[in-house]
């Protein structure tokens, strides 16, 4: 879907803070920084203040955690791989043994980061935008609040080279800081997933490196990038759920 | 669209580096960090190394620049606003006066950051994923390489509160570092857009604050969040392109 800027062809005549745009609804909105009310030199000074040699961990990764990686694998293949949840068992550090639950679309597996810990997962994808969102939670599948927002972007468009850029964003849901259902923990000394939030930048970087290694090894080696799910049993063939 | 992990119900039995997953295609892929080959304590140590008190600007914003903002405005309204390109004239610092070109979906306006500079823009959106990608370029509209990848995420899902999280990612296309068409510059001393890359974190933060201020002012004030495009002429009503 392509949507154009829908402004009419008539150029406006910038007339300062009381110019046409202000008349049309920006009057009274405090805090706007626009060329009509801010000299570019003032903006430059503000940007210089905001730009620092370095940024504290909490400032960059405290509330949101986004990482990016270039992968030498075509976006359609990378997306096809990422969207299939069983591949989590390949590229994540510790998610394994997914199986369907009684609820359509909801799967449950083990997060081997903590012994006896079950992780529930539903995958929401959009082929056109190439978004892949993993809606997960530990211990229960009623409210999936650990959401891994990923997207495969054609590197041709954004980096002028073949392959994909994969972005991965997590937001610090309040349940990271307070387990809403401690009664569901498999054991009283099991660490809560939120204890790992400050390591998400690092941990996800390791996992995204896994993803890159797998996709590039297979694509550059001429192998199929996606693999079938594990067989349901020794005597049966691969079970494909979709 | 919802896609489930498609792994079968049979639990695998982890058997170390030569276990089932390796047999199924990970053998020979170097550099994988997985629970089968890496003790969690080793991963923890690696994550501790990767996690630092602070990160240099170039490391965080040098190649990719993602910023995030919570906005107290429902995701459908925030998305409807963002996807309409004429609103760029409200929330950006310096994009103004968009008008259609002869090419369907391609618009051209002024980037008042630099005098006499034209910016071409096409907006690609996806209502289901709520992605809004602005494909832009200065000076010419044949190759739109300045791509602003944005997404509106329901805060209810990721932060357990009403409203939206808006993410905004730019990737450092090589043209930022070398103008491929210096002959199209309107004047010989016009600064190139790539000269601003290192200020994108700051500049986009200012613009995302504009976006938040506008959306919250209107939503919380009970006003329509979106506004019609500027009138095409004094005697005509608002022109809506979509």
Q: Can you tell me about this structure?
A:
2 copies of one chain form a homodimer. Chain A has 242 residues and is α+β, with helices and mostly antiparallel strands. Chain A is 26% helix and 24% strand. The first copy, chain A, contains 7 helices and 9 strands, in the order βααβαβααβββββαβα. The first copy, chain A, has helices at 20-26, 40-50, 57-61, 75-83, 88-91, 155-159, 200-220, and strands at 2-3, 54-56, 64-71, 95-100, 107-111, 118-126, 131-138, 146-154, 164-171. In chain A, strands 3-9-8-7-6-5-4 form a 7-stranded antiparallel sheet. In chain A, strand 5 (107-111) and strand 6 form a beta hairpin. The relative contact order of chain A is 0.15. The model of chain A is unreliable at 1-23 and 233-242 (pLDDT under 50). At the A-B interface, strand 1, helix 1, helix 2, strand 2 and strand 3 of A face strand 1, helix 1, helix 2, strand 2 and strand 3 of B. Strand 1 (2-3) of chain A pairs antiparallel with strand 6 (118-126) of chain B, so a sheet runs across the interface.
Q: State the share of residues found in helices of chain A, binned by percent.
A: 25-40%
The oligomeric state of the chains shown is homodimer
> What integer value in Å does the Rg of chain A equal?
23 Å
Strands of chain A, total number: 9
Q: Overall 3D geometry of chain A?
A: globular
Count of DSSP H/I helices of chain A: 7
Poorly predicted runs of chain A are 1-23, 233-242
The secondary-structure element order of chain A is EHHEHEHHEEEEEHEH
